[in-house]
Amino acid sequence: MSSDSDLRNLGKTDRHTQILLELRLAPHVRVADLAAKFGVTTETVRRDIAELSNQGLLQKSHGGASPCASGTYRALDQRQGECVKERQQLAHKAATLVKDGQTLMIDAGSTAMEFARALAIIGRQVTVVTNSLQVAMILGTSDSVNVIVAPGRYLNDEAALVGTETCSFLRRYHVDACYLSASALGEMGVSESIDGFGSVKRTMLEQSSAQYFLIDGSKFGKRHLLKVADISEIGNLVTDREPSGELAQALKKQNIKIILS
């Protein structure tokens, strides 16, 4: 993660991202501490906090700011409790595919977080570009990982950044591989239920030399509103069980590599 010296003279969007990241790590942040860390005036930090408060992303408190009320992250937290063993196994398998020195893009979500944990535990020496604050924090515990966090519109329930600014930032990079999660996989392709995730995932696919989708079997045969990729664009599917029926036929027809955990 960035040192304090790296945080000085950040632009407003990057300061907002950092403030929200700090509130994932602590119950309260102080205006004076943030001003010193960013190398700006306390008035600037107060304006930052006021803007984030108006967007419903944090709560102003005496001398600083606090996270929004408990329950804000319910959507992501609920998913973290589903298919835990399956996601951990496939995430570990995916991490073994990564080689030291590679550059990666990792998206947001519960499976992406498990993948980040596996990378940190294994100790891979990689550079990761992500739109997930949770992924960034997990990888930030490893001295072997260089983490780059994309800016954008903050989704509080998902601890993730999305939007045109996020995608524009991602297009600055060309990486060796992307490792993406998803809400559903059917014979028509990969789809998402969370607004904003689809465009970020598609951009990551475009900017990567190799593509890996990390999807457990509970999501097979499903389809959500937001299309992410056709079957032909999946590249590699890392999963906990063999697909069956029409999905299996569609994957076989497109010669998609299935990697079982």
UniProtKB/TrEMBL annotation:
Entry annotated with the keyword NADP: no
SMART domains to which the protein is assigned, alphabetical: DeoRC (SM01134), HTH_DEOR (SM00420)
Domain HTH deoR-type: 12-67
InterPro entries reported in the protein's UniProt record: Carb_Metab_HTH_regulators, DeoR-like_C, DeoR_HTH, NagB/RpiA_transferase-like, Tscrpt_reg_HTH_DeoR_CS, WH-like_DNA-bd_sf, WH_DNA-bd_sf
GO molecular function terms listed in the Swiss-Prot or TrEMBL record: DNA binding; DNA-binding transcription factor activity
Keyword Zinc: no
Keywords for this protein: DNA-binding, Transcription, Transcription regulation
Organism: Falsihalocynthiibacter arcticus
The protein, known as: DeoR family transcriptional regulator
Pfam families: DeoRC (PF00455), HTH_DeoR (PF08220)
